[in-house]
Amino acid sequence: xxxxxxxxxxxxSSTTSDVFNAVAEARxxxxxxTLIAGEKAVGTIVNDLSLSQPQVSKHxxxxxxxxxxxxxxxGRRRLYRLEPARLGPLHExxxxxxxxxxxxxxxxxxxxxxxxxxxxxx
Length: 122
Known about the structure:
- About 55% of the residues lie in helices and about 10% in strands.
- It is mainly alpha-helical.
- It folds into 2 domains: about 1-80, Winged helix-like DNA-binding domain superfamily/Winged helix DNA-binding domain (Arc Repressor Mutant, subunit A), CATH 1.10.10.10; about 85-120.
């Protein structure tokens, strides 16, 4: 592209700067899963998931940056809790697919009932 046509936009590389990219990593999803039960200290998460403390801290930092978890200091400990409302964009995106899946399952259920009725008539 000639420089005169350059519009100043730069293609964004894949980062963890949004909810979708943050939850794309399996270890971060595991951390979110462990926080469903409630607020936990980093050490507890380390023990729950058998990960190293630096690994957990790195993933918690990413999750904090996108707002999926909140940190609360308590003395020398840092307690983390899930912020489920921040999963909204992901939920909204998945809802479209859930509707399609439900419609397909309903059609399959109707087909299976039809087959069952045909089998009973014979």
